[in-house]
Specification:
By secondary structure, the chain is α+β, with helices and mostly antiparallel strands. The protein contains six helices and 15 strands. The chain has two domains: 49 residues; 272 residues, Alpha-Beta Complex (Sulfite Oxidase, Chain A, domain 2), CATH 3.90.420. Strand 11 and strand 12 form a beta hairpin. Helix 1 packs antiparallel against helix 6. The radius of gyration is 24 Å and the shape is globular.
């Protein structure tokens, strides 16, 4: 009898411990909530020593009322994902289009000018609410090739995707729940269907090699279409704390930083993010995160839908409520069988 009672006690304790472990795991998961659509953007320009030269925050309402509007809310714009069959650069733009919706927005150049603009050699960083970042040189922002098109901070979507692409939502944020989003307003001179596609070959022709974006070893412009943008930063000269810069001919050159260990990360670089590197294109992380250069994998910023098999590993607030209810049920269950 004594052995039987002790066995039951041990079983009760083990069951209670299991319940508490599960409860802790559920609470941790419920804390991982999805980033929200943004309605305003902070603009800031830094001097080379980190001093703020200009700073301002504007809402999409202000942008719509005071700056030139690009897009008409009816024309759809596209980026291109990786092409796995045939020529991976797909010069004729035949497949893997990623519809960004019928969007309207503000030229990134006009926003930069509100805080002093970007000069030759400056870096322009786009920062998102979930920590995702992209960096661009001045030429791609201020003097874009028509096949690339202007970089547009989109704050309105007139109609959602037609065919294949991440669901965007319609209207203004938060109903446009991928907003505010960066979309390249490429012309339709290349696409045989007359679509406005910023294709992989367009990237090849308009971006320096060091700024190409790849999904593994396949070029993809889709990674340039960042969403939930909350800051635009201009760095005079280059990003602080990096050992490399971009010269006037768009080639990477060493900047004279001494004793930088391979793989070391700059200590004073804002919003630094870890990077996935493909095996055949591994590089030192002392190079700047320039617009997710060719070694950067595409899957860093997750889709709000299940597009491209990039499941968003974050959870909504509703999931938190559900996990709390499950946890309460488990505790009640354990108390019942004491």
């Amino acid at each position: 009898m004594t052995i039987e009672i002790e066995a039951k006690s041990v079983w009760k304790v083990a069951r209670l411990k299991a319940c508490f472990v599960l409860l802790s795991m559920l609470l941790i998961c419920s804390a991982l909530t999805q980033a929200e659509p943004t309605t305003e953007v902070r603009l800031v320009k830094y001097a080379e020593d980190g001093t703020i030269l200009g700073e301002r925050t504007v809402s999409y309402h202000w942008m719509e009322e005071n700056l030139a509007i690009l897009g008409n809310g009816a024309t759809h714009y596209y980026h291109q994902g990786p092409v796995f069959q045939g020529d991976k650069w797909d010069p004729l733009e035949t497949s893997s289009f990623k519809d960004k919706g019928a969007v309207k927005g503000t030229d990134l150049k006009d926003l930069c000018d509100l805080v002093g603009g970007a000069g030759p050699g400056d870096e322009i960083q786009v920062h998102c609410d979930d920590g995702y970042t992209l960096e661009f040189g001045r030429q791609n922002v201020y003097e874009p090739d028509p096949k690339q098109g202007p970089l547009v901070l989109c704050w309105y979507c007139g109609s959602d995707v037609e065919g294949f692409g991440e669901v965007q939502g319609t209207g203004y944020p938060p109903d446009y729940y991928a907003g505010m989003r960066l979309v390249f307003f490429a012309d339709n001179s290349t696409n045989q269907e007359g679509k406005h596609v910023f294709g992989n070959w367009d990237m090849h022709e308009s971006f320096p090699d060091a700024r190409h974006h790849f999904y593994d070893l396949y070029p993809s412009t889709n990674g340039f279409s960042a969403k939930w943008i909350d800051e635009i930063r201009i760095y005079s000269g280059s990003l602080p704390g990096t050992a490399w810069t971009i010269d006037s001919e768009s080639k990477l050159e060493e900047k004279g930083v001494e004793d930088v260990e391979e793989g070391a990360k700059p200590d004073n670089r804002p919003s630094e993010r870890s990077e996935d590197q493909s095996e055949e294109r591994a590089r030192s992380e002392t190079m700047p995160n320039v617009a997710h250069v060719e070694y950067q994998n595409e899957g860093d910023q997750k889709d709000v839908s299940d597009d491209d098999d990039d499941d968003d590993e974050r959870f909504s607030p509703e999931f938190g409520v559900l996990t709390a209810l499950v946890a309460i049920a488990l505790v009640l269950y354990s108390r019942r069988w004491r």
